[in-house]
Amino acid sequence: MPKKNVLLFLLVVIISFILMSYQSKKGHLLSGDLISYVLNTSHVFATSVTDAVKSPFKKIALRDADNKLLRKRIDDLLLERAKYREAVLENKRLAELLNLRENQQHPVAAARVISRGLGQWSHTLVLDKGEKDGVVKDMSAITPKGFAGKLFAVTDAYSKLLLITDVNFSAAVRLQESRKEGVISGTGSKKIILKYIPYEEEIKTGDIVITSGLDQLFPPGIPVGFISKIDKPGTGHFQYVEVTPYVDEAKLEEVLIIK
After folding, report:
1. Helix residue ranges per DSSP H, 104-206
2. Quick one: CA dihedral 224, 230, 233, 235, positive or negative?
3. Would you say 82 and 55 are in contact if contact means Cβ atoms under 8 Å apart?
4. DSSP code of 158?
5. Hey, is 59 helix, strand or coil?
6. E strand or H helix at 111, and its extent?
7. Domain extent at residue 201
8. Residue at 216 is within a domain
9. In a domain, 91, yes or no
10. pTM
11. pLDDT tens across 28-47, in order?
12. What is the CATH number of the domain that holds 203?
């Protein structure tokens, strides 16, 4: 028998015994109505005690349930806000790409990055545009920030982009201010190297590097990056020059393909 029922039974017995003892002392018999009254009163008392004990636990359970619903609502709102922010950022990027396309003489297609190449030294991307979209091998890929790379493989629906940071990439460039010409080469890292700058040439960090078009592969005047490091070794004819690209390949999601 549960403890609650045992306590209730003992309570009823004790109260009944007291009343019976009291009535016997006065020479009266305990009526059935009085017994019913005592039993009912005892039941009401026991129920009140039980409800009083249960009440805090019910409140705690209700509070926990409310907290779970509130947490779920907060999570839903955070997810909706994240989706909204992502949509806003995407619209901003696409608007910039559309504006870039309108200012280009030979735009072909806007493409989305759908996967990245594997390997420590490989810096390639797969785009969702191919021959059916007018894309062909060796076309250039640019962003509103600058030069991204060139297409080295094209299928009917997809194309592969060789980024300017890849070790297999090179392009003819010039310094925007001094007009000195050189060649950039990828290093497999976030930096690229500007080659063939004579030892005596006066250059400085921050100088802007643009495509020259002299390789007959890439249109001239596309921003590539800025000089971030200069070193003049004790021997040799050329300076060691590092360039930081304007395009951050880790954040690259869309490109504009141009002829």
Report:
1. none
2. positive
3. no
4. -
5. helix
6. strand 107-116
7. 170-247
8. yes
9. no
10. 0.64
11. 444 555 555 555 655 555 56
12. 2.40.10.350
